[in-house]
Structure formats: structure tokens, C-alpha cells
Design goal:
The complex is a heterodimer of chains A (477) and B (197). With 477 residues, chain A is of the alpha/beta class. Chain A is built from 15 helices and 19 strands. Chain A is 31% helix and 16% strand. Chain B is α/β, with parallel strands linked by helices and 197 residues long. Chain B contains 8 helices and 8 strands, in the order E-E-H-H-E-H-E-H-E-H-E-E-E-H-H-H. In chain B, strand 6 and strand 7 form a beta hairpin. In chain B, 47% of the residues are buried. Classes of the chains: A alpha/beta (477), B alpha/beta (197). Chains A and B meet through helix 2, helix 3, helix 5, helix 10 and helix 11 of A and helix 4, helix 7 and helix 8 of B. Bound molecules: iron/sulfur cluster. The site of iron/sulfur cluster has 13 residues of chain A, from loops.
Chain lengths: 477, 197
């Protein structure tokens, strides 16, 4: 019997249905649960109050990231340096206590394996293709770059997964975003996903799980695919997916928590069967031409406010949608920008290279390639490079990238979420601008009053060199 | 969860599009390890601006918020729902919500009601002077002026909201089915069990 052609998303969904209710809602099994300190304390508390245990501690991995300062964590004698902010310290301690109490593996802040959850999962081989992965963090979509159905959940759902290893879910619609052609010089995965967000809008993918396809996506490394899927949520999608292929398998093979030996072969055979079948259809399709994608930058306070670096600050009165006009006016006021200003005339005082979008080794290499033999501009007050994990840090140091950064006048930090959000000491001062490789330019995201311009690692490096938003192509030979 | 079947009262006519979770509750408020007390930080950045609806005495204590497209976009922080509940809001009406926010709202008995933009425009008008009434049982939003807007809601969610169902307790009744699933997978895909690093 011929079965109906299915998408990658449908295959993963079907493989995880524990029960289906009459109204179509399904009880979905969760293969992997990542836990960090911010969204879990109330969930553990809920379990304690109800006298419940964690059903599958073996499928759960805890790591602190959001609150950790990115300055040295050990003093000269190898002792922990205490965390100054009492509330951050309390939240970190809660995780350190809760993980062993509930039998969950915990990666300590001083462990070389520590890092941002979404960097650690793939790096350890904890995140695998075809699995369902959740975390109390919206950028969990990131793991979709490996072909996993990964999505962010709230704290009540964290508690639900801890207690039952399942979630009650309704199936999302499916969407294909096809990126065809070849990327020009200086154009990276980050530019692709910023461009997609600009085209689809911040809610363009709402209610959908997006599969990114096409020659551009196939040609990307896993780091690049993780960057793209990471920002699926910024165009509203529940999750992003890239079909697993040989690039994926080569990346995962030999990772500490990945299958080994015969198990590995069985796993690869299964993963190969997951690709979307010929003839399967999506509920929605968008096609993007790679030739249209330039090094990109945001001008406003929504990730959909994207322009090519060659563009000018838009005039809100030219927007068709009146509510968008209003929002754009407010954004420009907050950002301190005047319509018509060329993007490359905008000076920045701060540079942030890091976050779960762009803190993997390839991102650091791209930034270092621009900074090599150059110095940061005099008007740059603060410029930090924050590797996504201790292992990324180690690798970068082995390649000498840390020296390139420090020689250029940038600071080389310990892994964590850092200036991606204002929860730890790394913040952008009010009224100042930051060229940032993170994923959100919301009002106050990098600190109260901070003005964020989202860019790729190479573009952030270029801005560090000139002190302005800069077309990185002008610095390439 | 407390059962909820209707909400009646004033509404904050916010109307803003893309109200993200950093607007609802900024990151500095996320360091709490409890669910309560977040109302103080709710909509902090908007409240800094003169003439904002949240500090307008005309709407003080309103149980309803009216907003634009894509409400609650951004992070998965359930603190957004907790902060709104702590502020006394029981329902949000908007043309669309982020998926994660509407899930979080539901888990906290906060109604996230989807209505088309023209209905929103009308309710924004009404909210300036009069009360709005949301009835979950009949799935309608009404005003004292004969306006009547019907909305859709997932039947399972409706059932849980009206009866105040503990969802974890409900799922735990399916423990046998979960065990059967686990056994099936450990036989067919033993490699799915992670190697402990
Ligand atoms: S780096 Fe930023 S987006 Fe990523 S998990 Fe940390 S806070 Fe969230």
C-alpha cells in the first residue's frame, strides 16, 4: 500500500503521538528537555508542592546560562567567585539545588561543557534529529537546525514535561520557506534569517512549523542552520526545521551523548527516512531568492524591521498599514533615528558578539576574519565577544581567535547569554547603540533604553572597526 | 487553576501591535523564584510614558486588555502571564497572539481572545466609556450597545478553563499509555536513550 506523502514535521509528529483525543489534540512524547535557571524554579516548586517526581531524569539536562556574569568565575586559587547580584545568585542556586534533588544531570558554571542551553544541546549530541526537544526558552527552535522538532515552552509546561515527559498539543500548520540560489560574498546565515524575518514579518509564521529548504539551506553548515532555525520564533513560527543530511550526521558523529557503534548506524538509517516525501504539501510556502539577500541590519524595535545595510532609515508615513506607521514612529523615536539617514551613517558605541544565535565557532571565525590585524574604532566604548560554551571558548583559543579579538581591543569573555538580554551584568547603557549578533531588538532588551541593531558576526566586527554600521563587503579583499 | 467562565468590566484600550514579552515584563523582573508580585513590573516601559492607559484612573483595575496583532510575541517567559494576572487582568482581546503566549495565558486561566481587527477597533471605542463583557460559555464578547462578537476557542482549553482542570493531574491519568509508548520506543529505537556524558 502506498502511504500518503508526508512532510518532515508530520513524520516527527506522528512518531511521538502517545494518545490522540477526539478533538485532535495529542499527548506528545518529549525526547529531550533542557532546563535553565530562569524558567524552572516555579516548575520545581510546583512538583514539590504536589509531591510529584521527574518522570525521566535521564532525558533532562540542566545548565545555567542567563544570569551568569561573563567575567572570570574562579579566583587565582580556583575558588568560585560569588555572584554579586543577590537575585541572580538565588536563581542560580535554586537550579543547583533542584537538579540533584530531582535526579537531573547538571552542568556547573565552571564546567568546560557549560554554555548557553542551545549551544550545549547540539554540542553534546544531546539534541538529535527526529527528536522532540523542549526548553523553557523561545529560542529552543534553534535545535531544529539538526532536524529536531524543538520549541519553547512556558514554566507550567516545563512542570508538565518534568512530571509526565509529555505535552498536550495540537498540531501546527506546516510552512516551507525555500531559499534558492547562492549567497553573495559577506552574506551569512544570519543575513538570510534577518531577510526572511523582514519578508515574512514578525507574525508571518504564527501557528506554523517552518521547514527551511532550498539550495542555500543545504549548502549551510550546522552552525549556519542553527542560526536560521534559532530565529524561527522571530517570524512567529512555533518551530523551525532543516532536514537532516550528511552534514548533520558528520556534525553529530562522536559527540559525547550521541549514539555510538551499531546504535549510530541504526540512528542514521532512521534519520535518513525523515526527509519530506516527494509530493508532500505544506499549508503555506514562501520562496526567497538568495540574490536578494544583502548583509542585513535592523533599524527598529521588532526583528521584522530589517534593511540591507545599503538602505536608509525608512519614513513611517510610507508604510501602508496605519498601525505599522504608528509602531514605526515609536520605534524611530526610541532608536533616535531620522528617516532618510543612510544606515552606514549610524555610529555605534557598543559591540556584542555572542548569544545562542551567533556564538558558535564558525561565528567567531567570521568575526575574527574581519578583525584580524585591525583595531576597534575610538568611539567604541564597549566591545565583547562571548563564546557560546566553554568548549567553543577552548576551540577558539586553540585557533588563536581570542588573540585576534583582544589585539583588536575587544574583550574575550566566559560563556553565557550575556548582553542578549538584560538579566546579568552585561548591559548596553540607556540611549547608546549596540551592533549585536543576538536575535531580539525589543525595547529594553539589552538593558533599559538600549538601542539594538541586529547584525551578523562579520557585520558586528566591521562596525567595531569603523565605529559605525558598516557594509562588511567594503572591508573584504 | 481557578475556574473562569466570564469576565466583565473596564478594558485598557492599548491597541498596540507586536506587544512583546519584554514590554509585558522586562528581563530584570525574571529573577524571581516565585509566581507572584510581578504586577509591579508589568508594562514598565509603557508606564514610563505620560498619558499611558495603565496609569489613567479611568481604567484603574480593568480586568480586560485590548491590543493589536501578535500580542505576546518574543520570549517564552510565563512571567508575562503571571505579571498580567498580578495586575488584575483576566482577559486579553487581540487579532492574534504568539503561540507560546496564548499557551501560557491558558495555563494561568488568563483568557486570550482572538477577534478580527474591525471588532478590535470597535471595542477600543467602547472601552473609552463602557464595560465589555466576555462570556466563555457562549464564546461571545458583548457591549452595552448591542455589539456581539463571537470567538473561537479550542474545546479542550474551554473545558479546562471553565472547570479549572489541573492539566498535569489529567495527563497523569494516561500514565499507562505513556509507559507503553516508552517501552515501544526503547525496543524499536534503543539509541534514543542518551549516553550520559
Ligand atoms: S542567548 Fe539570548 S536568546 Fe539565547 S537563550 Fe540566552 S537569552 Fe535566550
Amino acid at each position: 500500500m502506498m502511504s500518503t506523502p508526508q512532510t518532515l514535521y508530520q513524520k516527527i509528529w506522528n512518531a511521538h503521538v502517545v494518545e490522540q483525543r477526539d478533538d485532535g489534540t495529542c499527548l506528545i512524547f518529549i525526547d529531550r528537555h533542557l532546563v535553565h535557571e530562569v524558567t524552572s524554579p516555579q516548575a520545581f516548586e510546583g512538583l514539590r508542592v504536589a509531591g510529584r517526581r521527574v518522570r525521566r531524569p535521564d532525558l533532562t539536562l540542566a545548565v545555567p546560562d542567563h544570569n551568569l556574569p561573563t567575567t572570570a568565575r574562579l579566583d587565582a586559587n580556583g575558588n568560585d567567585i560569588p555572584i554579586a547580584d543577590p537575585e541572580s545568585a538565588q536563581q542560580l542556586e535554586a537550579l543547583e539545588r533542584n537538579a540533584p534533588e530531582f535526579g537531573i544531570a547538571y552542568i556547573d558554571a565552571t564546567d568546560v561543557k557549560q554554555g548557553i542551553v542551545h549551544v550545549v544541546g547540539p554540542e553534546q549530541g544531546f539534541s538529535l534529529p527526529g527528536t522532540t526537544i523542549v526548553c523553557g526558552d523561545s529560542h529552543t527552535a534553534c535545535h531544529g537546525g539538526l532536524g529536531a522538532l524543538a520549541f519553547g515552552i512556558g514554566t507550567s509546561e516545563v512542570e508538565h514535561v518534568l512530571a509526565t515527559q509529555t505535552l498536550q498539543l495540537s498540531q501546527s500548520k506546516s510552512m516551507e520557506v525555500r531559499v534558492e540560489g547562492e549567497l553573495g560574498p559577506g552574506v551569512s546565515a544570519k543575513d538570510v534569517v534577518l531577510h526572511i524575518t523582514g519578508v515574512l514579518g514578525a507574525s508571518g509564521g504564527t501557528g506554523h512549523v517552518i521547514e527551511y529548504t532550498g539550495s542555500v539551506i543545504r549548502a549551510l553548515s550546522i552552525e549556519g542552520r542553527l542560526t536560521i532555525s534559532n530565529m524561527a520564533i522571530e517570524h512567529g513560527a512555533r518551530a523551525g526545521l532543516v532536514a537532516p543530511d550528511d552534514v548533520t550526521f558528520a556534525y553529530l558523529k562522536g559527540r559525547p551523548m550521541a549514539p555510538k557503534g551499531d546504535d549510530w548506524d541504526a540512528a542514521v538509517a532512521y534519520w535518513r527516512s525523515l526527509a519530506t516525501d516527494a509530493g508532500a504539501t505544506y499549508d503555506k510556502v514562501a520562496t526567497i531568492n538568495a540574490a536578494d539577500i544583502a548583509p542585513s541590519v535592523t533599524w527598529g524595535t521588532s526583528p521584522e524591521d530589517v534593511l540591507p545595510i545599503t538602505g536608509v532609515v525608512p519614513d513611517p508615513s510610507t508604510f501602508a498599514d496605519p498601525s505599522k506607521q504608528e509602531a514605526a514612529k515609536k520605534s524611530l523615536e526610541y532608536m533616535g533615528l531620522t528617516p532618510g539617514t543612510p544606515m552606514t551613517d549610524i555610529s555605534v558605541e557598543n559591540i556584542f558578539i555572542g548569544s545562542c544565535t551567533n556564538s558558535r565557532i564558525e561565528d567567531l571565525r567570521a568575526a575574527a576574519a574581519v578583525l584580524k590585524g585591525r583595531k576597534k574604532a575610538d568611539n567604541i566604548k564597549w566591545a565583547i565577544v562571548v563564546p557560546g560554551s566553554g568548549l567553543v571558548k577552548q576551540m577558539a583559543e586553540a585557533e588563536g581567535l581570542d588573540r585576534i579579538f583582544t589585539d583588536a581591543g575587544l574583550e574575550w569573555r566566559e560563556p553565557g547569554c550575556s548582553a542578549c538580554l538584560g538579566m546579568n551584568p552585561d548591559k548596553v547603557p540607556a540611549g547608546e547603540r549596540c551592533a549585536s549578533t543576538s536575535n531580539r531588538n525589543f525595547v529594553g532588551r539589552q538593558g533599559p533604553g538600549a538601542r539594538t541593531h541586529l547584525v551578523s558576526p562579520a557585520m558586528a566586527a566591521a562596525a567595531a572597526v569603523t565605529g559605525k554600521l558598516t557594509d562588511v563587503r567594503t572591508l573584504m579583499d | 487553576m481557578q475556574p473562569i467562565s466570564s469576565v466583565k468590566g473596564k478594558a485598557y484600550p492599548l491597541g498596540l501591535k507586536n506587544v512583546d514579552t519584554d514590554i509585558i515584563i522586562p528581563a530584570v523582573w525574571l529573577k524571581t523564584i516565585s509566581r507572584s508580585g510581578l504586577g509591579k513590573g508589568a508594562f514598565q516601559t509603557l508606564r514610563g510614558v505620560a498619558g499611558n492607559v495603565f496609569d489613567d484612573p479611568a481604567y484603574a483595575g480593568a480586568p480586560i486588555l485590548i491590543a493589536g496583532d501578535n500580542f505576546g510575541c518574543g520570549s517564552s517567559r510565563e512571567h508575562a502571564a503571571w505579571a498580567m494576572a498580578d495586575l488584575g487582568i483576566s482577559a486579553v482581546i487581540a487579532p492574534s497572539f504568539s503561540d507560546i503566549f496564548s499557551g501560557n495565558a491558558f495555563k494561568n486561566g488568563l483568557l486570550a481572545i482572538v477577534l478580527p481587527q474591525d471588532a478590535i477597533d470597535r471595542l477600543m471605542e467602547v472601552a473609552k466609556t463602557d464595560d465589555i463583557h466576555i462570556d466563555l460559555e457562549t464564546q461571545t464578547v458583548t457591549t452595552p450597545f448591542q455589539d456581539r462578537f463571537a470567538f473561537e476557542i479550542d474545546p479542550f482549553r474551554k473545558h479546562c478553563l471553565i472547570n479549572g482542570v489541573d492539566e498535569i493531574g489529567l495527563t497523569l491519568k494516561s500514565s499507562d499509555a505513556i509507559s507503553a509508548y516508552e517501552n515501544k520506543i526503547s525496543a524499536s529505537q534503543p539509541w534514543l536513550s542518551p549516553n550520559q556524558a
